[in-house]
Amino acid sequence: MADTFAERPVRRVGIARHPISSILLPVPIVCFIGALLTDFAYEGSGGNLLWVNFSSWLLAAGLLFGAITGILMLIDFARLKQLRIAQGWGAFGLLVAAWIVELINAFVHARDGWTAVDPAGLILSIIGVVLILIYGWLWHETRYDETGDRP
Amino acid sequence: MNRILLASLALLPLAGCGPSQDIDPSQQVGPNPVLPQPREDLIAAVGVADNVGWKNGQTPTVPTGFRIAAMATGLSNPRNVLALPNGDVLVVETQRVGSEPIDRPKDPVRDFIMSMAHGGGGSKETAGASGGPPQRIILLRDADGDGKPELRTVLLDHLNSPFGIAVLNGELYVADTDAILRFPFTPGQTRITAPGEKVIDLPGGLIDHHWTKSLTVSPDGSKLFVGVGSNSNIQERGPEAETNRAAIWEVDPKTGAYRVFASGLRNPNGLTFYPGSNTLWTVVNERDELGPNLVPDYMTSVRDGAFYGWPWSYYGQHVDPRPRPQRPDMVAKAIPPDYALSSHVAALGLAFYTGASFPGLFRGGAFVGEHGSWNRTELNGYKVVFIRFAGGRPVGKPMTFVNGFIGPDGKARGRPVGVAIDRTGALIVADDVGNTVWRVSYGR
User: pTM to 2 decimals?
Assistant: First the structure.
């Protein structure tokens, strides 16, 4: 019995061998891209407040799921040394960077009216999206280094 | 990656700190306040004093020669007072019901701050010693004028967030948050049982951001004037929500016909005619979240048909960058108010001194109840100020008249709202955090 446990491969935090981080990974990406799109829509509409409300909720959801994803990544790092490679740490660093930028962005978006987006909110949304896209691309790389979970 | 982080940090000044607003509130009083550049902080400055109430024997402070005493305690959110010619004092116990719909993640946070500022101490409601939801008018009878009422009754109950009250031609007019009601009322009466009659609907609705509807009667008794505050800070609920709001309405008490008398007044309260004149005055709460020293609240005479800027500009042509679409035509029309009271003081009460018992310099001057700030870390307001008038115009700087609402520990024992002058010439102050009505008299 003890031997079986020792040989059992260590995996990422998952449900039925499907890593949770892979499920949650796209959520902040989708939310932050969505917020950028609704920011553009707000600018394009000349200030229809519906769009800035969308942006605010998308940023809030992206921040919530981004935080959960970050915590899961750290747990995976602790368990799997295969993840502790440049791409892994790079992805984590980018997630943190994107999260900080979008947190500031969420406060900017809490302003009342035009200055919630123009110009600082839109600039931060663009930076946040660039960071989160590179994060997604790098994290995807690490999937192939995991024991027993190759696609 | 570090470089990206640095680049985003370099944006911070854009998002956060702006030009300095390092000026003193004393530079923002009078006809020509210093107006710094707008500054939108990353996180809006918030400072609301904790509410602790008054301990036995504690009172606000008044200048030498004056006396202050509680006229009634154990009330429940008293926000407005009206002194009748027969000596009776009416006290409006009121609060907003429900919270605003949530449009953004920010809204519940702001609701919480507002509930802190309005005497609830966060989510808790203050039920007065008399219990029950405070939506009613209390009558205090002080027949001998010694400041100690012999009788306290519930004059009228089951109202809907009332604020403004006025007596005219044998009727009591009550401005609920969504309607002006009229009740048969003979001075001396201590209980109104007759059903009310609706004069006119007022803008209420689900949002109803600025819900207090101030009310007064024209000197000839032919018209009512009612203050209808804006539905938002700076139109962030959309322009549709602001229809006929941020305005003072003129209402015919007989027919309920109305017109907008003046507009662009973000949250006008304390509507009062200057004694012996046909000039209407009001105190107005200006916009938030442009920094600790913008925009100063003000007291102004109100000109028929005038536009005072909200939401597009303030103090004349100072354009607010936030509301869209921009309206250069409206900015061009905006006129500056008469007299600034400094930023975020939340002036909610105004009464001109019509009595004779205070010293001469007080005659015809204005008492202003400043409920106190939330949108700056250093508290401002939280007192009743006096502004001297000469020739029907304010002169000089405001003088702190009733103070000490903030204790030495920085906590709020009370917060002043509505003010009135009673038959004996004493000043009456409603205190919605101390749940007290104060009376300030001169001499002895």
Answer: 0.91
